[in-house]
Design a protein that fits this description.
This protein is 34% helix and 19% strand. With 349 residues, the chain is an alpha/beta fold. A hairpin with an 8-residue loop joins strand 7 and strand 8. The radius of gyration is 23 Å and the shape is globular.
């Protein structure tokens, strides 16, 4: 009889502990994990394949299982968007992703969201979300420079840092952020500067927002450009985005790329610097209704708008890199083609 009672008490105690653990887990904030693919989800043949990884991909649940520390901080809900390299990402994935982020962040129990992404075009998707997600709650875009199977992989720590950043009290209102190598950047200013080193993402001229350090997440500044909830771009009115392309300026560059793009029907061209042969091509492109924005290939510094260039109706991209200027112009063209209005948008965002 004593043995029966002991067994019954053990069962009861296990049930109580399980119930308590369930209640405790339900009290944790929710963090949404949206997966799109990239190196962080990629597999190589062995642990030393740091740059060769085409052996398949892991899913979001595998990332969560590998980092139990994250599940002690939040209930993490996974939503798969795609499983592709970042060069395959674009408006087809970005538009529904931005809408889903806005919808999920509207849930009171959701503290914020994390998006996995390949690093080559990570800054482009992050900036697109920075301009279109309608919520003050934090969104952190992460990737990794080494595949999931690599020795000293960086993906798990980037994921844990993103969870901690989403839950940090000071993270709200800063728009979309990018986190790799313990460093938190604004999507507006961040860019990738190295092909394979872990320390590759930087914010030229302005520096990072803060750091996900071992003791706490610290922020030192906030972006003042318009973003997220303050953005004028309304995805409810968008089914697609106008085509905008980039033309690179260099010594003895031909006008042929501009002519070909105009013939193909592009709505906008970002000039990453210019060349003598571009001058007449740009004038003819503008006459055909194509918007041309001057950016720079240099990687840092503003493209200054002079009185003379303003009088010609030119538009400058401020300090946006060409690939980000392209993102902003695609969105801006859904609202206006007026040069003054377009310049206002580039000045504010």
């Amino acid at each position: 009889m004593t043995g029966v009672r002991a067994a019954a008490l053990a069962v009861l105690l296990a049930a109580v502990l399980t119930s308590a653990a369930t209640v405790q887990a339900q009290e944790l904030p929710v963090v949404k994990l949206f997966t799109t693919g990239g190196t962080i989800q990629s597999l190589g043949k062995d642990r030393l394949k740091l740059a060769e990884y085409r052996e398949g991909r892991i899913d979001g649940d595998t990332i969560i299982e590998a980092v139990p520390e994250a599940s002690r901080l939040a209930r993490i809900e996974v939503q798969a968007i795609s499983a592709v390299s970042s060069v395959q990402m674009g408006a087809e994935q970005g538009l529904p992703l931005a809408r889903q982020l806005t919808e999920e962040l509207a849930r009171p129990e959701v503290a914020g969201a994390i998006v996995t992404h390949g690093t080559t075009t990570l800054e482009e998707t992050a900036y697109f979300l920075h301009l279109t997600v309608k919520s003050p709650k934090p969104v952190v875009v992460i990737g990794s420079m080494r595949p999931w199977t690599a020795v000293s992989r960086d993906g798990p720590l980037n994921f844990l840092g993103a969870v901690r950043t989403v839950l940090a009290p000071d993270a709200a209102g800063k728009g979309v952020m990018v986190l790799l190598n313990d460093t938190i950047h604004s999507a507006r200013f961040v860019t990738k500067r190295h092909t394979y080193h872990i320390e590759t993402f930087v914010s030229p001229g302005v520096g990072p927002l803060g750091y996900a350090d071992t003791d706490r997440v610290v922020f030192y500044r906030s972006p003042v450009t318009r973003h997220t909830g303050a953005s004028e771009f309304d995805l409810d009115e968008m089914e697609s985005l106008p085509q905008v392309d980039i033309v690179y300026g260099y010594q003895e560059a031909s006008r042929a790329p501009i002519d070909a793009l105009v013939k193909e029907g592009t709505k906008g061209v970002i000039l990453a610097d210019s060349a003598p042969a571009h001058r007449n091509a740009v004038l003819e492109a503008r006459a055909a209704g194509v918007v041309v924005v001057r950016s720079s290939r240099k990687g840092a510094g503003r493209v200054v708008l002079s009185d003379r260039t303003a009088a010609r109706g030119e538009i400058t991209a401020d300090n946006l890199h060409p690939q980000k200027a392209r993102i902003l112009l695609r969105l801006a063209l859904t609202r206006t083609t007026d040069p003054r209005e377009l310049q206002r948008i580039f000045n504010e965002y």
